[in-house]
Amino acid sequence: xxxxxxxxxxxxxxxxxxxxxxxxxxxxxxxxxxxxxxxxxxxxxxxxxxxxxxxxxxxxxxxxxxxxxxxxxxxxxxxxxxxxxxxxxxxxxxxxxxxxxxxxxxxxxxxxxxxxxxxxxxxxxxxxxxxxxxxxxxxxxxxxxxxxxxxxxxxxxxxxxxxxxxxxxxxxxxxxxxxxxxxxxxxxxxxxxxxxxxxxxxxxxxxxxxxxxxxxxxxxxxxxxxxxxxxxxxxxxxxxxxxxxxxxxxxxxxxxxxxxxxxxxxxxxxxxxxxxxxxxxxxxxxxxxxxxxxxxxxxxxxxxxxxxxxxxxxxxxxxxxxxxxxxxxxxxxxxxxxxxxxxxxxxxxxxxxxxxxxxxxxxxxxxxxxxxxxxxxxxxxxxxxxxxxxxxxxxxxxxxxxxxxxxxxxxxxxxxxxxxxxxxxxxxxxxxxxxxxxxxxxxxxxxxxxxxxxxxxxxxxxxxxxxxxxxxxxxxxxxxxxxxxxxxxxxxxxxxxxxxxxxxxxxxxxxxxxxxxxxxxxxxxxxxxxxxxxxxxxxxxxxxxxxxxxxxxxxxxxxxxxxxxxxxxxx
Length: 571
Description:
Elements: E1 5-14, E2 24-29, E3 36-42, E4 48-54, E5 71-77, E6 80-84, E7 108-109, E8 115-117, E9 128-137, H1 140-143, H2 167-173, H3 187-201, H4 210-220, E10 221-226, E11 229-234, H5 252-274, H6 284-305, H7 313-324, H8 337-346, H9 356-386, H10 394-421, H11 426-431, E12 433-434, E13 457-458, E14 464-465, H12 467-471, E15 477-478, H13 479-524, H14 536-557
Antiparallel strand pairs: 1-4, 1-9, 2-3, 2-5, 5-6, 7-9, 8-9, 10-11, 12-15, 13-14
């Protein structure tokens, strides 16, 4: 224990006798302006908690020198606020004389109030009670001795070192010990490598797919020869134009638009940098500021047009509006936006032309304007193609599916972690079965429509799942079996179907994600006699997982089947 570290141990009691695990206990110091959060812990199965802190923890504001804190406790169950205790001014931290000279340790203990009532909305209640058991205070005698050396006065005494983690350490580092997902083979080293690659590539790049990694690095770095050696230039603007883990990238209309924009914007920036003023009284500061704004927005436009999964329409529309003005006619010789300000500050009008060089300079401005207006017309055409009945481009959609499936796989891990916090471990998950035919939501959870039969439970898309369809879900399944199915689908089966099956494989992804969405959502409305499973945090995490499966289905349905391969043509 450090010289200035205090350790407070206590217990949270429910209904004066019961204990509850997982209650978050926060220790605060009341200050005039901003309260200090001194420490956080969680209760174990017996309701015990432990918080360690130093004097610096309740002296967080500049110039604060209070000798003792004015403490109060807050209790939470997940995000639910359970209540708080009254403020205890001048919480005692000073040691007192040992009442028992035969104590086995050499620590001094501060005197602390024994029992606090937890209030909610300023109303006293005995539902939760917080009991402080002991406060370990740094001993002045102990701090004078080197802590790592054994005592010389008692050569026969054994030195006992406690290597078990504290409750606070368990809370900070405690994640599930075993899950259905296989562990990362690279361990910490792989995490370091992936983090370093993420900083260069702009995203977390999986290292278990060498082809995708090499393709992404090739697009990010450009090789050139300098004095007989190869030098690689990093091109951060091309980071967003990369293949996904499923092999997709920018294809179709987006690829055509991006390559046109790349040439036009690169040439346009060169022309922009070479512009000179035709007006003798031009304001140099305004000229360079406007030139810098246009250059920045053009570079951002190129990055957005090459974004993974397609450009954001609102973002591109805003960039064109900044450059050319709102609803500017592409054939207009006097555009709006920043380009109009550029012409005004530089004096780029025909009446200012006097020499051949000045006319060439004015022509460069017209060429820059034509580049941007032509790109705007191409962008309008591109937006029309997104609304066509031919469906989304498979390359672009593969990128979006890759992101959505990765979110589903991460959400399964989060469900596992939350279940572990409520002591719903792997073996218990294998023994708890779900009878989907019993899934039924309360009336307040369902929005009833006139003339429509009452559904069994709502789905993430806002529709209802009927009792007739629920009766068809006869085969029960364990909680572990369902979560393992979702994880394998998101991390292995789905990506393999998309890579090898093309549009037909994506249609299978749509059907499977729809079934998993229904089963996951039905699980949250099934009466399962397991207290840990019925916790609000577990139910909420499962419904979030069902919604993410619904998003996968939506993305997969946007890819239409090839002509002649639709089910109607197979008759």
